Amino acid sequence: MDPECFLRPEVSLSDESAAAARFTNTAQDRQNCRVSAADFDYLKVIGTGSFGEVLLAKYKENNRYYAIKVLKKRIILKKEAEGNVMCERNVLVKTLNHPFLVRLHFSFQTKERLCLVLDYASGGEVDLKPENILLNSEGHVVLTDFGLCKEGIVGRATTKTFCGTPEYLAPEVLQQQEYDRTVDWWGLGAVLHEMLYGLPPFYSADRIKMLGNIIYQPLVLEAGVSKTGKDFLKRLLNKDRSKRLGAKHDMDEIKRHAFFSSIHWDDLVAKKIPPPFVPTVTGPDDLTNINPAFTRLPVPEFTDVCEEAGLTFPDFSYISATSY
Ligand code: ADE
């Protein structure tokens, strides 16, 4: 894979995954190899979100474990987030072979729910808050959740979303100004700040205050992080997007920064660099790295297994060429 595509799912469509996407989207395939809610045993809740839960489930066909992201159609429609959901599904279909993006195996719908069947990343979350950066059992990062990708990040759904979590959003997004790909480099800076300092930049427990801080307050970087680390953060978290690192040459500028001087990018993408932390995972269904706040929740019942009745989302259902 071209290392330029790292963190750029929309441009990383390989021939193979394109072929898979084409293959699985024919009506004939969907008829011949349906996957439905009844094909899984639902074991535990391993995550929650505004649209539903993520469940650990076992596929009866092959006894493998998967994380199934369950989204409630009623809530999606109420929040006018159909675009976000289809965007997430489309990004997952397009990025099947990316080393650090969660892999989609199937998606199906019931009368009331949309379901994305993903690899189970058993290593848990990287940090307390960047909950969409998971570790697999080998310690490699796995990014999950693409509901706010480029096409999704417009209109009312976004307005509602950033009312909830402004931590990682660039000032221009919060101010509903024009924005471009450089919002991702701000987001990288915000997540890296949290990893290095323990809290996102401009943090306040008062969300409205934090919103004001992100837009108006200058960045203050305390002691405890290397000079290079601070320089990298300062350049990523530039409020002026035209001067932000990545504004001119995108990923190239990021890769060239001294913060990454020890990284051999081709080896990284080929997963040849041993992860610095390997989680303790005893088997494919090990839940010890998953937050007990999730696993304690009751597993919801799937009583609405019929796909035909109810609100349908055309083109949502999907079967990966290599997963059945
Ligand atoms: N939480 C959200 N997505 C997940 C996944 N794919 N594996 C484990 N936990 C998750």
Automatic annotation (TrEMBL):
It comes from the Eukaryota. Residues 261-324 form the AGC-kinase C-terminal domain. GO terms for molecular function: ATP binding; protein serine/threonine kinase activity. Pfam families: Pkinase. ATP binds at K78. It comes from Bagarius yarrelli (Goonch). Keywords: ATP-binding, Kinase, Nucleotide-binding, Phosphoprotein, Serine/threonine-protein kinase, Transferase. Residues 40-260 form the Protein kinase domain. This is Serine/threonine-protein kinase Sgk1-A.
